[in-house]
Design brief:
This protein has 285 residues and is of the alpha/beta class. 19% of the residues lie in helices and 20% in strands. The longest helix is centred in the C-terminal third of the chain and has 14 residues.
Length: 285
Amino acid sequence: MNRMKKYEIINADAYEHVKKIPDHCVDLIVTDPPYNLSGYSTGNIKLSWRKDINNDLAQWDQKVFRPSEWVEEFIRILKPTGNIFGFTSYNLLGKWHEAFDPRFETFQYMVWHKTNPVPKIHRAGFLNSCELIVCMWNKGHTWNFTLQKEMHNFIEAPICMGKERLQDPLHPTQKPLRVLRHLIKLASKPGDLVFDPFMGVGSTGVAALETGCRFLGLEIDEKYFRAAEKRLKEVQPSMLNTRVVPSSASKPAAEPAQDRYLPKEAPPQPSDPAPPPSRTRRPAR
């Protein structure tokens, strides 16, 4: 059976490989693309009395991320009932809104308040204690509304630390499972397919499996990919598919089977793309 069992991770360039994913097969996109904040960094702060404060971001953050380059592919692969959550920062919020707001009936954002942010040693300005999560969906989307007090667009959680924080390799922007599980529980059903094209060390995948969903992840960096593979095997060791896909500069990989990402009991989805959603705005839901 050439269908995805529970999760599949692929060591590939997301910009190239997303084009190979079948139409309307993804239930939820949860992703953490580059923030492009490296240009604002002043480098690490060395201190004699504590561990150095890491202000350097990885080289991949220097590659310009343009939300407008992802609109068409996200709409193509997402089911009509699907949702999108994208972590971002203040400098890209307007670009996300400009690209996605005209194409979805609802564009909102959440705030993740980090209860243990990096301190301001020189006591200048605010602590960087908040990160933003853009949220997009259309009428009829999957949504698990609970109590009014639990449905604020705000979540408090510490940054990733302790045993959850990987040290080798150390990913500078690893997201905490508590936040990811919260997002997935809000916007999916058991067995749904969660997709992360910027998988990193696989935190979205771990949270998806822990909440009863399936997972598809892409990651271009091999060391992060191998770390994600190890983490996911620890959650569900017998149901993992992994692939390494050459970039377009080398031998192209075979196209994935069109039914790979469908649940075993589900028939293949129609190949014709759905018409674009109406641009008429409706009140936020």
